[in-house]
Specification:
Length: 266
């Protein structure tokens, strides 16, 4: 289903069969009865299940029958189905390289059937169109040639104050790759991005590592040094650029640079 343009254009989602057995299967391909969805079932405490339901507020939990590869049948397994009803013919988004890799790695680690792994491998991933990247680079060039903006240096403490909680410091700001971004107030972003340098967070996400334990706020031990772009892989740098791109192409603006980030690049 559609996600964030320019960085995470499509996320995996499940839609149920129609009552007559027709329509679309869980893998997004049309067909009748017999469509399969492969995955892993987890037994978790009720309090964790409740927390997961709150986290995934855009989904309904549909009870389904889960059949393991060795024939064990488990009833009432909760499956997350988007609350927004699928309209046949509506646009779908391509997954990012990061997200598709997450699905494929999870399928391998879960020892799912090889034909399902091959099915996941058949999907293309999002690649930034040349015209989109050209415009992004043009905005960056304009910033560095704007005398009123290019020399503006924000500290992480100043950025943290622009988290949207103070009406006098609105709209909220974030920072990516050392650029301080004034977020377009008309778009939705994760609350964790506001007032925060999300470069480390983006890298954790790209590499499939825990954001809860790995992302560090400016007032927490270990925040410095900030990630060095020169130490990033090509894939990591591309994902960071796409994250910046997603902000700029949705109406956000570069207003300054982050002092500590620039210092830690040296």
């Amino acid at each position: 289903m559609p996600g964030f343009q320019y960085v995470e254009p499509g996320w995996a989602a499940i839609r149920p069969h129609g009552g007559d057995g027709g329509g679309d299967g869980g893998d997004g391909q049309s067909g009748g009865r017999g469509e399969e969805l492969h995955g892993s079932a987890f037994l978790i405490p009720n309090d964790e299940a409740d927390g997961l339901d709150r986290q995934e507020g855009g989904y309904n939990v549909l009870p389904v029958t889960f059949t393991s590869y060795d024939g064990e049948v488990v009833e009432q397994v909760g499956l997350y189905i988007p609350k927004k009803e699928y309209i046949p013919g509506s646009p779908e988004g391509e997954p990012s390289l990061r997200y598709l890799k997450l699905l494929k790695d999870g399928a391998k680690e879960g020892n799912l059937a090889q034909h399902w792994i091959e099915h996941l491998k058949s999907f293309p991933h999002y690649v930034t169109p040349s015209e989109v990247r050209f415009q992004t680079q043009a905005w960056i060039f304009e910033f560095h040639n704007d005398d009123d903006r290019k020399d503006q240096l924000w500290t992480v403490e100043k950025l943290a104050k622009h988290d949207g909680s103070n009406p006098e410091l609105f709209p909220p700001h974030t920072s990516i790759m050392g650029y301080v971004i004034q977020i377009n107030p008309k778009i939705w972003v994760f609350s964790s991005w506001k007032g925060h340098n999300i470069t480390r967070r983006n890298l954790l996400q790209f590499n499939g590592k825990s954001l809860d334990t790995g992302d560090i706020r400016h007032d927490e031990p270990g925040y410095r040094p900030l990630p060095k772009l020169s130490n990033c892989s090509e894939g990591e740098r591309e994902y960071l650029m796409q994250s910046l791109e997603s902000q700029l192409h949705r109406g956000s603006v570069i207003v300054a640079q982050l002092d500590e980030f620039l210092s830690d690049q040296k």
